[in-house]
Design goal:
single chain; mainly alpha; Ribonucleotide Reductase, subunit A
Length: 275
């Protein structure tokens, strides 16, 4: 099959399934949480800076593109149990993220039911498309996107600094999930580096040179929302370089000269503004 659909050897497929089972078993034992019962909803703070609620809404909107993410990614790996089952599990965890973020907006009274309905309608007017044309590149993209997403949530949690115990817990739980996702996909990229380093390095280079967080450009006011994230010091270009780009290269044992840019067109569009 072409690299656009499927590219792992039988040996790599077996290793990936083992990694997925380890991931799943660990998540079942240590990381599962309840949207209804695991968050102190009675401790929402309706008096936070309105910019925080605006950023939370943006995160929620990006998470709502889950049907597009899964609908476009699953066909690439449908015959590969480890990859396909991981995406199904990833989708379950991401769906909880959008539920928890949406519930906080309502419980905190920062948004009304009508506003949330309008938000969902606005999201589903646009369709998310794959940012890369082959499955290997999408694997590398997901690795980068999940780590960047983890940082978005972690850094927003630092901004609120305990002022809202409910939102603090939501962000803590989501950031832990996203870190686990990033680690899993990094392990998959490592397997591909071990099997075909040159081909995998080429896709890593492509992803880093053109990286954008998913879906924010589809939002009517996406640029304003991206600016709000930067103004709260949640995510920006220096953060990307020092906490995403450099750590990933170090963990994968890639030297910068191996993916030297030919011509970079990357514009950091944050998840105000990856699965």
């Amino acid at each position: 099959m072409s690299d656009q659909v499927f590219f792992e050897s039988g040996e790599v497929k077996t290793k990936i399934y083992r990694l997925y089972r380890e991931y799943f078993d660990r998540a079942e034992k240590k990381r599962r949480w309840s949207v209804r019962d695991g968050i102190p909803w009675d401790q929402c703070n309706p008096n936070l800076d309105p910019a925080v609620a605006d950023v939370v809404q943006t995160f929620c909107m990006v998470e709502l593109y889950l049907p597009d993410y899964l609908g476009k990614l699953l066909p690439q790996v449908r015959a590969h149990r480890g990859r396909a089952w991981m995406l199904a599990n990833w989708g379950y965890e991401e769906s909880k993220h959008s539920l928890a973020l949406g519930d906080w907006l309502l419980y905190s009274r920062c948004r009304t039911e009508e506003q949330m309905a309008d938000m969902e309608d606005a999201v589903f007017e646009q369709t998310w498309e794959l940012p890369h044309d082959n499955a290997r590149a999408m694997l590398c993209y997901t690795m980068v996107q999940e780590l960047a997403t983890h940082l978005h949530y972690r850094n927003l949690r630092r901004v609120i600094n305990g002022q809202d115990p409910a939102l603090d817990r939501v962000l803590e739980l989501i950031s832990i999930d996203e870190a686990a996702h990033a680690d899993f996909f990094r392990r998959l990229v490592q397997l591909h580096l071990d099997e075909d380093r040159a081909a995998t390095l080429e896709q890593v280079r492509r992803v880093f040179n053109t990286f954008k967080m998913p879906a924010v450009h589809l939002l009517v006011d996406g640029r304003r929302r991206a600016q709000a994230v930067e103004e709260l010091h949640i995510f920006d270009e220096p953060t990307f370089m020092t906490q995403v780009y450099e750590p990933i290269l170090a963990r994968l044992g890639i030297q910068k000269k191996e993916i030297r840019r030919r011509q970079s067109s990357r514009e950091i569009v944050v998840m105000s503004s990856p699965a």
